[in-house]
Amino acid sequence: MNKSIQLVDKLYKFHSLTLEEYQYLLDNRSSEIALYLRKKADKVRREYYGNKIFIRGLIEISNVCKNDCLYCGIRGGNVNCERYRLSEKNILSCCENGYELGFRTFVLQGGEDGFYTDSFLCSLLKKIKAKYPDCAVTLSLGERSYESYKKLFSAGADRYLLRHEAASEELYKKLHPENMSYRNRIKCLYDLKEIGYQVGCGFMVGAPFQTTKHIAEDLKFIEGFKPDMCGIGPFIPHKDTVFKNEKAGSVEFTCFLLSIIRLIHPPVLLPATTALGTISENGREEGILSGANVVMPNLSPTDAREKYSLYDNKLSTGLENASNKKELEERFKNIGFEIVTDKGDVKK
Ligand code: 5AD
After folding, report:
1. Other beta carbons less than 10 A from residue 326's beta carbon
2. 3-state SS string for 262-300
């Protein structure tokens, strides 16, 4: 216990631990240490963002994907997945609805779908930014070329989310088919940063084959990369994948990691993810209390939501539904936090 406390204090002070120290902290978790860690993370978060929670309107533009990631329900090889694509008109009407509800960031997320060419996306981005100059647009559309990222940035995209999935190449290979490249994924992240995006990386907690050593490597990666955003959520099995019988990640471990990541990089924008809300009724509140400061409710059309099934029982109603913002506000108020109508840029 004492050594863990010392490690948390060291992390709080220096924002860095060795790989072995991270692993020690992960392997020797206890509810006492988790509480101690959470208090430090909360303190740091309040120094940067007070009690403010930023909201992002998530628009799932397509579930068509050329990749075949072993864990993912919308992987290209899943013949049971009913595919859809949103048109420009559909997407703009999601933005309109979101703006009225008080969202000032729109996240366009989708599988790697060749339908969404640079020219389609640039034209869409220009329209969104012209209509809502006070809003940020985040893209989450997977790996693209440097030139493509550059064009999209010039057309108005502000942020990009691309989870690195695993900083260990050995684990990355166990979670992805042979034609996917760990190196290219990391290159994409550095390309995005160089171009000027606010960039988000991230990984799943409790994925098959994942050990605490692998997670320690993720934490070292985050230390070096200093992402503006970091999306982590529990792995949840999907019935149409090879991992269908694997066990899900836990709220407890995900929250422990949220606190650590807050201490590694104090200004990071950290979402309490949908996956966290899916495995537990109060998952999102637990995430916020552990140091998260972002939630991303769903603005997609209702029929699209069911089809964007990354894992079993993925929530898209209730608190995940952007229309229920009032209820979300109420829940966060109960634990002392306030949802704000704000672009919510990272504090530099
Ligand atoms: N469980 C949890 N998260 C998943 N993702 C994909 N499939 C799953 C799953 N079965 C995450 C990946 C991806 C993001 C869009 O969703 O990390 O980057």
Report:
1. 10
2. HHHCCCCECECCHHHHHHCCCHHHHHHHCCCCEECCECC
Rounded Cα gap, residues 64 and 110, in angstroms: 8
Per-residue pLDDT tens digits for 140-194: 999 999 999 999 999 999 999 999 999 999 999 999 999 999 999 999 999 999 9
Nearest Cα neighbor of 290 from 40, 23, 89 is 40
What are the tokens at 318? 């209730």
User: CATH number for the domain including 62?
Assistant: 3.20.20.70
User: 316 lies in a domain?
Assistant: yes
Beta strands in 114-179 (DSSP E): 136-140, 159-161
Is 6 among the domain residues? Answer: no
- Measured from the CA of 311, which atom of ligand 1 is nearest? 10
The token duo for 83 is 């595919």
Q: Is the beta carbon of 311 within 6 A of some atom in ligand 1?
A: yes
Q: Is a pLDDT exceeding 80 seen at residue 1?
A: no
Helix axes 212-225, 251-264, angle to 10 degrees: 30
Grouping H, G, I as helix, E, B as strand and the rest as coil, residue 304 is helix
- Ligand 1, residue 275: give the atom nearest the CA: 2
pLDDT tens-digit readout, 93-116: 999 999 999 999 999 999 999 999
Does the CB atom of residue 275 touch ligand 1 within 6 A?
yes
Residue 322, pLDDT score: 75
Whether 49 is in a domain gets the answer yes
Q: Into how many domains does the chain fold? A: 1
Q: Where are the beta strands (DSSP E) in 180-326?
A: 198-205, 229-234, 294-295
Q: In what order do the strands lie in the sheet with 294-295?
A: 294-295, 52-55, 338-340
Distance CA 8, CA 192 (A): 31
Domain that holds residue 58: 16-340
The answer to whether position 10 is within a domain reads no
Query: For residue 49, how many C-alpha atoms fall within 13 Å in the half-sphere facing its CB?
Result: 28
Q: Is the CB of 71 under 6 A from ligand 1?
A: yes
Rounded to the nearest angstrom, the distance between the alpha carbon of 185 and the centre of ligand 1 is 15
